[in-house]
Amino acid sequence: MIKDSTRLKEEILRLKNEKNAIILSHNYQREEIQDIADFIGDSLELSRTAATKDCDVIVFCGVHFMAESASILSPEKTVLLPEIDATCPMADMIEVRSSRKVWKTFPGYDVQPTFIFPHEFTLKDIKAQYPDAPVVSYVNTTADVKAESYICCTSANVVKVIESLQSDTVICVPDRNLSQWAQKHSNKKIITWDGFCHVHDRITIQDVSKARKLYPNALLMAHPECRIEVLEAADHVTSTSGMLRFAKASSAKEFIVGTETGLIYRLKKENPEKIFYPLRKDMVCPNMKKTTLKSVLNSLQKMEHLIKVTENIRVPAKKALDRMLEIK
């Protein structure tokens, strides 16, 4: 197995150099994928980095919307997604013109509509109801949703983005938890969507209490995609990149990590003297774990699973991203 892994890595690196490619890995990817990546990080952070690099090919080890973002920012480059079925269920919960009601594939979670617009509606519907409200779309959305939006946001800057807008009412899609966190820190009226990340949304306040008892000396870091009661109980609420910065800067020696468990590998590598515990051991995104060394190799060998955003979608989607990037 070790020999096979070594051989795969060697061949990947050979092909990467031959084809002038770079490999991007999201923080939630498998350990062996992070190890071969040229850059590891959040989705938009990776796409912005790739846009500045002198390369012909971008191999994005992540999920579909991430590769789309790379195509939006680097239209002249070939963007490959090693696993074409690696999608983001939350991103798929909102569509411009039709609804697939993806949330029904996750029984057992509280998915009853708690905000104004459940999945029977579409982005076109919500824009028609609030024609003067700008749409703020999370980067965890498809390219066509970004194209229908005025501006994008990340989990780190959602409040700053919303506060930058002139309108007193804004539409924020698709994550209800991120929107509720933003509402807590904004006086604007935020119209939200009933979407969620099935990994983060499963955490309950009971899980927090259990973790606190198990690890009494640890600080709790929570991702803004968690439920509001979980975020209010956390010591620090931030994105995955924010967690990396916080853990490195903090004098604390133990941390409870309230996000997908893939981040713990990088946290440990960057802070070997500190201890990291998952808030829940089952905080695993199956789609993020689909990418393997074999699929990366196949993608480079066959140049397969090309992700190319058409210009009629790419241009307005990039405008939404650019507006966000202009905010200081």
State the helical fraction. Answer: 25-40%
Order of helices and strands: HEHEHEHEHEHEHEHEHEHEHEHEHH
CATH class (first level) name of the largest domain = Alpha Beta
Helical stretch tally: 14
Q: What is the second-level CATH architecture of the largest domain?
A: 3-Layer(aba) Sandwich
Within CATH, the superfamily of the largest domain carries the name NadA-like
Biggest sheet details: 4 strands, parallel
The third-level CATH topology of the largest domain is Rossmann fold
Q: Beta-sheet strand percentage?
A: 5-15%
What is the straight-line distance between the termini? 48 Å
Unreliable spans: 98-118
Q: State the secondary-structure class.
A: alpha/beta
Write a structural description:
By secondary structure, this protein is an alpha/beta fold. It is built from 14 helices and twelve strands. It is globular and about 55 Å long. The model is unreliable at 98-118 (pLDDT under 50).
Topology (elements, then pairings):
Layout: H1 2-18, E1 21-26, H2 31-36, E2 39-41, H3 43-51, E3 57-61, H4 64-73, E4 78-80, H5 123-129, E5 135-138, H6 143-147, E6 151-153, H7 158-164, E7 169-173, H8 176-184, E8 189-192, H9 205-214, E9 219-222, H10 228-232, E10 236-237, H11 240-249, E11 254-258, H12 262-270, E12 275-278, H13 293-302, H14 311-325
Parallel strand pairs: 1-2, 1-3, 3-4, 5-6, 5-7, 7-8, 9-10, 9-11, 11-12
